[in-house]
């Protein structure tokens, strides 16, 4: 079976905080011939891990890498790599993904009120402008 994993499945894999759901998540992932993971689910995963579970960004990056490196997992790798680059630099995973998607769609400059996002993206050579 080819499956798409919801964020709550990814959370059970990463956190292993519910034995029954964790086992079900592992079995579903291992038994699937293909596991599609949406970048949106990874953005939600990062947000929940940081905001609700108070995980450090380095732990979140490790969790995302662990989930996507399984042989049967497919993701939009360039978008995920962009998110991880910003996360590794101390920013939000979603900001990297948003900037990547914007460029892919034809946007030339990432604009935001988020000073940290603009600074980190600019530091990576991505055109970014702080709105005031």
From TrEMBL:
InterPro entries for the chain? PIN-like_dom_sf, PIN_dom
Q: Which CDD domains match?
A: PIN_VapC-like
Query: Keywords on this record?
Result: DNA-binding
Please give one Gene Ontology molecular function term for this protein.
Answer: DNA binding
PIN domain mapped to chain residues: 5-100
Q: Which domain of life is it from?
A: Bacteria
Q: Where are the transmembrane segments?
A: none
Stored PANTHER family: NUCLEIC ACID-BINDING PROTEIN, CONTAINING PIN DOMAIN-RELATED (PTHR39664:SF2), PTHR39664
Protein name according to UniProt: DNA-binding protein
């Amino acid at each position: 079976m080819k499956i798409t994993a919801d964020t709550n499945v990814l959370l059970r894999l990463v956190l292993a905080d519910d034995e029954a759901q964790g086992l079900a998540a592992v079995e579903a992932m291992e038994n699937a011939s293909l596991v599609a993971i949406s970048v949106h689910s990874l953005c939600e995963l990062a947000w929940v891990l940081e905001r609700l579970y108070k995980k450090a960004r380095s732990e979140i990056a490790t969790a995302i890498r662990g989930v996507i490196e399984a042989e049967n997992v497919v993701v939009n790798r360039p978008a995920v790599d962009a998110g991880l680059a910003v996360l590794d630099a101390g920013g939000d995973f979603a900001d990297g993904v948003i900037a990547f998607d914007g460029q892919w769609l034809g946007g030339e400059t990432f604009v935001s009120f988020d000073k940290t996002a603009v600074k980190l993206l600019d530091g990576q050579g991505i055109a970014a402008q702080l709105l005031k």
